Amino acid sequence: MIAQHLPALQIVLPLLAAPIVVLAGSARFAWLFSVAVCWAAFAVSIGLLAQVMQGGEISYLLGSWPAPWGIELRVDLLNAFVLLLVTGTAAIVLPYARRSVRIEIAPEQQGFFYCMLLLCLAGLLGIAITGDAFNVFVFLEISSLSTYALVAMGRNRKALTAAFQYLIMGTIGATFFLIGVGLLYMMTGTLNMADLAERLQPLHGTRPVLAAYAFIVVGMALKLALFPLHLWLPNAYAYAPSVVTAFLAATATKVAIYVLLRFTFTVFGADFAFADQPMSLLLFVPALLAIFAGSLVAIFQENAKRLLAYSSVAQIGYMVLAISLATAAGLSAGIAHMFNHALMKGALFLALGCVFYSIGSVAIRDMAGIAKEMPWTMAAFVMAGLSLIGVPLTAGFISKWLLLQAAFELGLWWLGLLIVASSLLAIVYIWRVIEVAYFQPRPEGRVAAREAPLSLLLPTWVFALANVYFGIETSLPVTVARGAAAALFGAGG
Amino acid sequence: MSFLAHYNYWIVILLMMLGLYIVVSRGNLVKKIVGLNVFQTSVFLLYISIGKVEGGTAPIIEAGYSVYSNPLPHVLILTAIVVGVATSALGLALVVRIREAYGTIEEDEIDHQDDDE
Fold first, then answer.
1. Burial of B114: CB neighbours in 10 Å, binned 0-12, 13-18, 19+
2. Is the pLDDT of residue A258 over 60?
3. Is B43 within 8 Å of A168 when comparing Cβ atoms?
């Protein structure tokens, strides 16, 4: 009975929980209830992935209205994987939130904080699960609006301007997407993705369809922070509360990449995007620039959170680069990196959250000598850092390896060299933090820090160990990514 | 003639470009929000134009009428209008908070204060 309604439960659980959390009024209850809901959502997504792996694609008709008219929720391997990624991150980050939120958010705002976090979760899950193009826009705005509010809750006043900038760019991105969907509706008279894919086949050469695709791609490029449309990201990540940064860095951009994949491969079809239109080149060049510009700028940051934010811009570059290769191998490398990057950045940002908890700052110079005082926190940081660089036996190595394989398969050996060279840049910026934390003495005037409490360390270490686990036992991400990539190419013909 | 026949689409494009230009060019944060609003409104008009059926009346079943405008875009745009209102409200609330924190709503003065830190 319940198994049949899992797709609806996936969105409804966090959506209904959000107002309850505010109405209850107690911060402690809000936290407990949110943790319970996130774990329930995680269980639902595990159930969905298991169902999809066993029985193939699931189609769920909301209110039992038949498909092209009613709204359809559709779960295949790709979005079951994205759902697992988003709910898994939420389930690990939420237990961490209690202590971190207590020092970073004013007491009277804490209930609203959890409400916004749940709404954001509901929005991200909705985007991933729906089979209806307009529905994507609605959920996109639910998650975006709650994200702007979450970013603005940061303690530094720069969080306000960061949130405002994000609001402007995010709204332009979402509105571009809306224009694209409108043009598609104009040409086909349908909003259901599967139906759209069918009806678009004979219309591929027409100009409104081309314009629609252009609007959707640019809108999503803004949302996923593809260079040079990434300007909102560094400040938003740097000044948002620690929990929010970890959650967003691991999930939000990945969901935007999912939408790009879904529209490119399922709705428009791989042939349209890569054979008829020069999408490979249009994605390849910004992605390569993102990798190098993002990594180079990261090297010169003074704030560790901002450094990692620029690193995120570079890492998004890897994902888009993998997609732009337009082969099944490239696509599975991109999808696997979505998962692995969530693990790395989750661990890194949570470790910085621990640092902020203890010393009230994440400026690199304030972190001098901190490894002696907070050995567990910094050990987790180093492990995730190694994974980010792509050292063997970590999850990051698997993504890089798959990406290199995909590049060599196409005979692009120079691209392989560039990927390795860009990893060297990652060594430089991660080393900057490690060097200061491990090899410099504590500066005069800073009181000795205390190791972060267990409730903060445990989630951080879950992420850090996941980096090693999925570096050795690669079957889950790699099989799922390969299966999803094959399905995407199959759908587009 | 066909140029004028689709005048509503020209208005859409004009409003879209105006809105986007205001967002980019103005340094006043409230004006940016207004520009964003104009930009979003242009998309509402686009959807409403799509739904228009020539000679069609409002989609209410009534004796004597057989041609109706397509109601679906109207419904979609009701949702988008709600989203637009929420965005403006949140944006303006942020402007109030920014004004409390910085004492100004001019972008260049805010940047100036941030650089001084």
1. middle
2. yes
3. no
